[in-house]
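Q: How would the structure tokens look for this protein?
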Amino acid sequence: MSLEFSADAKKKIAAACERYPSKQPVVMQALHLAQKEFGHLSDDALQLVARTLELPYAHVYGVATFYTMYRLEPGGRQTIRMCTNISCMLRGGYEVLAAFEQRLGLKAGESNAEFTLVEEECIAACANAPCAVVGTEYLLDIRPDQVGSLIERLQARPHPESEVL
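A: Here is the predicted structure in token form.
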């Protein structure tokens, strides 16, 4: 079965293509849209992006596998990206990650229906380490004892925030 973008996604991709002299800069936005529409980036979704942008599949696959924000496998409704880079590590990032793992019953890289937990290299919020990002919301200065209430608040969201810019 061949996937197709919604009319809205096609319109967004076409508008993005008009802003650049080539279609390569649009790959990331098209991947975000595909992930939003299909839940993850299956091989069919990657082929759709390549076909839509008239780019080689290898290029699209390379971008999708380079960035941790793209999921090649189905995941939870929301993705928690916990930073463990140097600033976060020095201020307890691994302890916060362990609290997320314990509370969710997941290891980094695993998913359940509600959450995917990812150990992230850096989310560029070093001044407020340790930190995580969920959709477009940054969770700053996290302590392990705050993880339970953070998860409860995230579970109460009716829909995840869009990761599509």
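Residues 160-165 have pLDDT under 50 and may be disordered.

Helices lie at 7-19, 27-38, 43-53, 57-66, 86-90, 93-104, 147-155.

Upvote if useful.
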